[in-house]
Amino acid sequence: MGKPTGFMEWNREPAPKREKKDRLHDSREFVLPMAPEQAKHQAGRCMDCGVPVCQQGCPLGNPIPDFNEHVWKGRWREAYLSLTSTNNFPEFTGRLCPAPCEAACVLSVNQDPVTIEQLEKEIIERAFAEGWVTPRPPLFRTGKAVAVVGSGPAGLAAAAQLNHAGHTVTVFEKDEALGGLLRFGIPDFKMEKSVIDRRVKLLEAEGITFKTGVTVPWHDLKATHDAVVLGIGARAARELNLPGRELSGVVQSMDYLEAANRRAAKNEGQATGKRVVILGGGDTGSDCLGTALREGAAEVSQIELMPLPPSTRTSTNPWPQWPFVFRTSSSQEEGGLRSFGFMTKKLIGDGGKLVAIEGVEVTLENGALVEHPQSTRRIEVDLLILALGFTGPDTSTLTKELGVQLDARGNVKVDGDFATNVTGVYAAGDVMRGASLIVWAISDGREAARAVDTFLTGAPSSLPTRGRDAPFGGR
What are φ and ψ of residue 401, in 5° steps? Predict the structure, then answer.
């Protein structure tokens, strides 16, 4: 907890941001650090609520009241040790997590919640600045070799934990650089890639080997390692199955974002000077919006299939459930138009190039979307970005070469210990869960590592998960 009466003395204050007119001219991070006194007051708003529902709402089980109290009392090193006892990468979650812990904060019943996500970032950045974050290689090696396939948050978390347990870990990544969608799917304005590089250097110094640009030979990998952890994510994009999908000017969101992240000149790209329409109102669509604005699009519209959400919780969406309410992302603050309740029905081309989309308004009635044909509307567009979500992982080679079974949704099937049907092969993150949150990926990576450690040693693992057990996580 922080100060018992703090929530009555200070309102929620988000971290300062760079001015919109300035941040649209580059791709640097736009969220600025909190002043120490501001961070202290925000941590002080954490009250003695008795039952820390925030901690239950966090997939990692982060000891949120504990590190808030440490920040409130100026004990930043203790806050760092507390936070990292359950979270390997607070620098990622403190920038990118949608913060289910804040939705579950008791203050959310009738006030604004504690700024938990930002405080995580403040704690870990203070720790890096003070030199508290140093490599801690294991004191011994078990002689067991583990292959981790995929270097996103699930793979990195599993690798970090298994390395702490003394196993020899090699991470295999198909892309030319590490981080998975953290690197190629998240724009720099939300998290600069130096943040990933900084963490990877620490993991390397702790003894983890990284191999990039690798097409994994599944049979050889299993034959040469004592265990394998699959952390390849769920990148298969949902398609727009309409005539005209093949037209030039229609792209998937991840193809667009990955291309933008790979470009050297971040102020020019596919969207420069074009009329851009983004289908999809979620976080990925917002990332595309912010990227298109920075690339100098002539105009940008973000269209959501579902109707406009309510401004506050409804009676069927009570605390501490995730609130399904109207939100405005940082990218949406910066510009562009937003539309709700619009269903695309036709893609219109000219000479093989997309020139417009046509659709109708829809409303939600008795749980079903109802089209209104009289509301047909045509929207001129040069670049259509599909941000419709993801259908699951690419498992074609996994099933064929490794024999891994899939569940009914097409994800890798695992048991309660994250084990697949193939002995010694485990899965963590989106590959077994479906597209989800970074905090779930880290949690899954830690849980899978604990199960792998037990499998390799034949004894109960002392690797901590959700705040349990030993001090390996504290760094």
Answer: -95, -30
CA angle (346, 257, 426) in 5-degree steps: 105
Tell me how far apart the alpha carbons of residues 395 and 393 are, in angstroms, rounded to a whole number.
Answer: 6
Is the separation of the CB atoms in 282 and 309 below 8 Å? no
| Cβ neighbours of residue 313 closer than 8 Å, sequence gap 6 or more | 319, 323, 324, 325
Q: Are 12 and 45 in contact (CB under 8 A)?
A: yes
Q: Write down the pLDDT at residue 49.
A: 87
Q: Report the alpha-carbon distance of residue 467 to residue 262 in Å, rounded.
A: 37
pTM: 0.95
Condensed to tens digits (0 to 9), the pLDDT of residues 217-230 reads: 898 999 999 999 99
User: What CA–CA distance (Å, rounded) separates 287 from 290?
Assistant: 5
Query: What pLDDT does residue 472 have?
Result: 34
**Which segments in the chain show pLDDT lower than 70?**
1, 264-268, 467-475
User: In residues, how long is the chain?
Assistant: 475
Q: What is the DSSP letter of 248?
A: B
The bridge status of strand 145-149 relative to strand 168-172 is parallel
Report whether 137 contacts 449 (CB < 8 A).
no
Write down the pLDDT at residue 376.
96
Distances (CA, A) of 152 to 73, 177, 231, 404: 35, 11, 7, 20
CB 409 within 8 A of CB 121: no
CB 391 within 8 A of CB 236: yes
Angle (CA) 90-68-428 rounded to 5° is 30
* CA-angle at 194, arms to 429 and 172, nearest 5°: 40
Q: What's the pLDDT score for residue 471? A: 37
Write down all domains in the chain, each with its CATH number in brackets.
6-130 (1.10.1060.10), 145-235+391-473 (3.50.50.60), 239-388 (3.50.50.60)
Place of tokens 């640097």: 28
How many CB atoms neighbour CB 177 within 10 A? Answer: 18
Alpha helices in 302-423 (DSSP H): 330-334, 396-397
Decide if 461 contacts 106 (C-beta within 8 A).
Answer: no
What does residue 353 show for φ and ψ, rounded to 5 degrees? -115, 140
Nearest C-alpha neighbor of 279 from the set 332, 343, 355: 343
Query: Are 425 and 223 within 8 A, CB to CB?
Result: no
What pLDDT is stored for residue 1 in this prediction? 64
For 53-79, give the DSSP string. Answer: HHHHHSTT---HHHHHHHHHTT-HHHH
Q: What pLDDT is stored for residue 473 in this prediction?
A: 35
Enter the tokens of residue 257. 């974002």
